Amino acid sequence: MNALDDGDVLARYRDLFVQSPDVRAYLDGNSLGRPLIASLERVQTFLAEQWGGRLIRGWDEGWMDLPTTLGDELGRVALGAAPGQVAIGDSTTVLIYKLVRAALAARPGRTEIVIDRDNFPTDRYIVEGIAADRGLTIRWIDTDIASGVTPALVDAAVGPNTAVALFSSVAYRSGFLAEIEEITSLVRDAGALTIWDLSHSVGSVPTPLDEWGVDLAVGCGYKYLNGGPGAPAFIYVRSSLQGSLRQPIQGWLGSRTPFEMGQGYQAHPSIRSFLSGTPPVVGMLPMHDMIALIGSVGIEAVRAKSVALTRYAIELVDAYLPSARLSSPRDPHRRGGHVTIDHPRCAEIMPELWKQGIIPDFRRPDGIRLGLSPLSTSFAEVEVGVLAIRELL
Ligand SMILES: *Cc1c(COP(=O)(O)O)cnc(C)c1O
């Protein structure tokens, strides 16, 4: 029992998630969100009645439009995006590849890609591969591991040769929340495009993309969107850019008329042109329920609980773990939904924590990351988790 849970107006939503009897504190919802109970039924009903019952006819009854109908819904409840700019399909990794290539093609003659060294590995590896392939230069930004990309660092890195910049909204390690609007505008002033990887913010931190003038974004479906392991990711392309951007994986389902089976690719005149192959329909099912839940609670209320959870985690770390170093921002305006603490013995105690049913995760070199998914995590879990870490350290 924890008094903060008694005062939490969102506490009752925890009962909507599948419980795991052997877990005392699930502190990794930022890596893999818990399933909603509603998703159990949705998946089963889909297999029995829609797939099993409608068979191939299902494609004409809504399956084909799911990437954009669910995308619009996600845009509305979590991204501040008007319809027609969000689509779901592929992995985050593949969508980053598509957007970096599309952005480069839209800035011919420019030779540089800007990215930071603490960005998520897949983001860096994609950029390294494309740069090698195309003979381009990567302009690396070195950030403090306890913070992240700032407008000043970006300003110093972009210039007349920059084609595209790729950053994460929330740093996967420190939880640092970037100044998305200001950085996007700085990069635009240099004549380049910015791609935001929203994997660690979508569903937890509001990012009004239209209002902030964001150009391009991608994000993960299985973290705070609870889509399940390997759920497809989403892509956002600002409507005013859609006509001028071409992604490199020209497949039939991004074409204007897939079922005419015609000669020569012509891109679909919409966000669909950023898709390539058949939509991962089954993989999208659980996300429906989480998107609907975020819609009914409201993303601002979700964020308020997220801030309260991370603030509480920091208070407990200060009180009980004086030998650990807090590697996340204390300023809630610059902090996403997780908190990382560094201590030389973090790696060593992880197996014992997991054995006790305390499930955070470990991030190199020596951080334990407490991921606090707002609607499924209690304040009591945070307390149990930090106290267990204290015991073991
Ligand atoms: C989780 C995560 C990804 C995951 O990419 P996949 O293609 O799903 O493996 C990408 N970028 C960031 C910043 C992430 O946090």
Describe the model.
The protein has 393 residues and is an alpha/beta fold. The chain folds into two domains: 3-38 and 298-392, Alpha-Beta Complex (Aspartate Aminotransferase, domain 1), CATH 3.90.1150.10; 46-294, Aspartate Aminotransferase, domain 2 (3-Layer(aba) Sandwich), CATH 3.40.640. Helices cover 39% and strands 13% of the residues. It has 13 helices and 13 strands. The strands form three sheets. The chain has a seven-stranded mixed beta sheet, sandwiched between helices. A four-stranded antiparallel beta sheet has the order 9-10-13-12, with helices on one face. A two-stranded parallel ribbon has the order 1-11. The chain is globular and about 65 Å long. The mean pLDDT is 97. Residues 91-93, 120, 122-123, 168, 172, 197, 199-200, 220, 233 line the site of pyridoxal-5'-phosphate. Pyridoxal-5'-phosphate binds next to helix 4 and helix 5.
What's the structural blueprint in terms of helices and strands?
Layout: H1 3-6, E1 25-26, H2 37-54, H3 66-79, E2 86-88, H4 92-105, E3 112-116, H5 121-134, E4 137-141, H6 151-157, E5 162-168, H7 180-189, E6 193-197, H8 209-212, E7 216-219, E8 234-237, H9 239-242, H10 281-297, H11 299-320, E9 325-326, E10 338-342, H12 346-355, E11 358-359, E12 361-363, E13 367-371, H13 379-392
Parallel strand pairs: 1-11, 3-4, 3-5, 5-6, 6-7
Antiparallel strand pairs: 2-8, 7-8, 9-10, 10-13, 12-13
Pyridoxal-5'-phosphate (PLP) binds next to helix 4 and helix 5.
